Amino acid sequence: MTQYPHDLYVVSNTEGGTDPETGFPIPSEPTEVFHCKCREIAAGPGNIVANESGETVSYASKVVMPKGTAKIPTNSKIIIKDGENIILTGDVIRFSDAPQLHCRLWV
Known about the structure:
mainly beta
C-alpha cells in the first residue's frame, strides 16, 4: 500500500487579457497545477473542524500530505485525482502543518 497514492492539484486562473485583433476581452481560464502527492480520507462521524476565523464547519474529506508540503491558502480550489479519475473537488477549509509527521488539510 502506498502512503500517498493520490495527486493533489490546486486550481488557479490564468490571466485573460484582450484579443489584439478585435480588442475583445479574453476570459481567464482555470488551470490545474500539480501541488503534491497525498492521501484523501473521507469524513466519518465527528466531521467538524474550526476554520481560521474560529467558526466550526463540517468537512467532507481530510487530506494528508508529506511533511514540508507548501501551504495551500484557505478557500483555494483543489482537485484530487487517482490516476486520471477525479476523486475529490472542493475548497480548502483549513491547512495544518503542525509538528506531526505529515501536513493536513480539510475540504
